[in-house]
Amino acid sequence: MSMLNFIFEILLRTISQLITILGFFFVIGFILSKLQKWTQNQYQRSVGWLGILWTAWIGTPVHELAHAFFAKLFAHKIEKVSLFRPNRKTGMLGQVDHSYNPKNPYQNIGNFFIGAAPMIVGCLVLAMLFNYVLPGNQEILALVQKINFKTPIEALSGLFQIIIALFSVENIASPRFWIFMYLSFCVATHLAPSSYDQKTMWNGLLWLFIFLFIFNIGIRSAHINLSSFSEYFSLAWLTFAFWYASVVSFVHLLVASIILFPIRLMRR
């Protein structure tokens, strides 16, 4: 293989990987952001901005701690952390201020992961809730492992089976189930990256591309096959967590719209 063909192959592989990563985070992030915005609008038009605090007091600290953790992981200087400080004027619920050296490649790559951190950590928290709080979780975990995201029909079919198992008669009668639902509800409805988070992710995009390009050159040159590694660390769990977050956020929007509709009418 000529050097030109080698570079072209590595370039195509890197671009494909980057599109996969961006598509996964940005598309789901966009969906979550829109659902969160519409839900908050329902509260604004009825009971006011403070109505979102019944989920934000748990969801926001998880969101901000995720930013702080990845900022620390990528050697950014953390200047200020506000895990939960609602501000009616700005609409902000919390904040993590950090700075970095723009000449440092590692810290630049970190920008992408710092921006995406609430989605990554939020999904891990959802997974922990599934494992340690949800009663009868073994059946649902087995369904999660079998779910196929290759086509929309297969994905929806798998998700429908999980929803049926989730709302079983045994679960509905268990207090632990409702604790699980509330906690996961709080986390899922605050996974969405803010506009600032999305901008942070874009700042690290070029350096992430460079890292993947060099990584692929090393893997290809060493003739290392990562197919089994990729299968072991399947995106099934992460994908399911994102879709579950989207479903919960949609349910939140639907319930808020129905319950708050009479209040909106009274305020007109």
Approximate strand percentage? under 5%
Residue stretches low in confidence (pLDDT < 50, at least 5 long) are 228-234
Overall 3D shape = globular
Number of strands: 2
Cα separation of the termini:
72 Å
Biggest sheet strand line-up: 1-2
Average pLDDT works out at: 80
Largest beta-sheet details:
2 strands, antiparallel
How much helix, percentage-wise, in residues? over 70%
Class per helix and strand makeup: mainly alpha
Based on CA atoms alone, the radius of gyration comes out at 21 Å
Number of helices: 11
Order of helices and strands: HHEEHHHHHHHHH
Notes on the structure:
- Helices cover 74% and strands 4% of the residues.
- With 268 residues, it is mainly alpha-helical.
- It has a domain at 3-50 and 117-135 and 174-267.
- Strands 1-2 form a two-stranded antiparallel sheet.
- α1 (3-44) packs parallel to α11, α3 (105-132) packs across α8 (195-203) and α3 (105-132) packs across α9.
- The chain is globular and about 70 Å long.
- Residues 228-234 have low confidence and may be disordered.
Keywords:
mainly alpha; two-stranded antiparallel sheet; 2 strands
Give a quick rundown of the structure.
This protein has about 270 residues and is mainly alpha-helical. The chain has 11 helices and 2 strands; from the N terminus they run ααββααααααααα. A two-stranded antiparallel sheet has the order 1-2.
